[in-house]
Amino acid sequence: MTFILSHQVLDDILQKHRIKSNDLAAIDRLFGGADGYYWYHTLRHMCPKKDVMVWNSLEDMHAAVQGHENETAAEDEVKPQQLKDEHLAAIASHLKLAS
After folding, report:
1. Is 0.85 topped by the overall pTM?
2. Which of 11, 48, 95, 99 is the most buried (most CB within 10 A)?
């Protein structure tokens, strides 16, 4: 399975669900519940604005997202959050390419 991330993809997800970018509660629900907005925001920050990121497996995508979280937490000298199954499932459902 292939997963694709870009700012446009994230914008399209919100638009598809008629969610404004400042509606944190709705983004939380859309991206797996409590802390969903955190992971949505992490995705926006890990992908350069005009670039597209592609992963060929759920494991690769998980490793990339968690790796980015681990790196930024280390830079900020804080403990990294762990990507929960519910967040990963929600992210995967939104970023997977239709077969």
Report:
1. yes
2. 95
